[in-house]
Design goal:
The chain is mainly alpha-helical. The chain has a domain at 7-47 and 111-208. Helices cover 66% and strands 5% of the residues. It is built from ten helices and two strands, in the order E-E-H-H-H-H-H-H-H-H-H-H. Strand 1 and strand 2 form a beta hairpin. The longest helix has 41 residues, at 84-124.
Length: 212
């Protein structure tokens, strides 16, 4: 079984949290509760709907720019004589670039919502901060054992995972020591810029504020 350890939040007529067998077999009960608290935080903040809406915006901007760009190249001779074709190309290129910039904001909001959900788990679950730290590290460690081909198939769904499935850690026996080791890491600002999740070190340090 693939221990993807993903809690899927589905919105139909109501909100649901689906707990995978992989999660239940990998994490102790108290850490499962902390992870569920994280997902309930997403529901409370309506993150699924929010992220769906803002994710559509850069896609729309890109496709409008794409259409205008090719319309400029393939425009009528009359429009080209008036300079309209070149203008459409410029507007199209501008919109395409704008869509990439807007995507950076989408990534930023995705990371921000993860922090909010982590805070919700830390506040609403007993010893939630410490147990969520441990749970996140166990998840990243277990994900390392998943085949790379399977991880690659999840690329488009990374935002739905509690951790980025492409970010894993080595080690598992002493989970608290592993937490401290990860917290000491220095995140790459450039890599995080294009990530849907905060760097694990920053995320674990964020939870430190709630540890009692």
């Amino acid at each position: 079984m693939c221990p993807t350890l993903l809690l899927t939040v589905t919105r139909l007529r109501a909100n649901f949290v689906a707990v995978t067998r992989g999660l239940l077999s990998t994490l102790p009960r108290e850490e499962v509760e902390a992870v569920v608290g994280h997902e309930l935080g997403h529901i409370k903040h309506k993150d699924v709907m929010f992220m769906m809406i803002i994710s559509i915006i850069p896609a729309l901007i890109y496709y409008i720019g794409h259409i205008l760009y090719y319309s400029g190249w393939l425009g009528s001779t009359y429009r080209d004589q008036r300079g309209g074709g070149a203008l459409l190309v410029l507007i199209g290129v501008g919109l395409i670039l704008l869509s990439f910039v807007f995507n950076l904001f989408v990534f930023y909001f995705s990371r921000l919502r993860e922090y909010y959900a982590d805070s919700h788990a830390a506040i609403s679950v007993q010893n939630g901060a410490r147990n969520l730290q441990r749970g996140l590290v166990r998840i990243m460690s277990a994900t390392r054992r998943v085949r790379k081909e399977k991880i690659a198939s999840y690329t488009q769904l990374k935002a739905l995972f509690i951790t980025d499935p492409e970010v894993t850690v080595r080690g598992y026996d002493d989970v608290d020591a592993l937490v401290e080791r990860i917290k000491a890491e220095k995140p790459s600002i450039l890599m995080e810029l294009f990530s849907t999740h905060p760097h694990p070190a920053k995320r674990l340090r964020h939870l430190d504020a709630y540890v009692t």
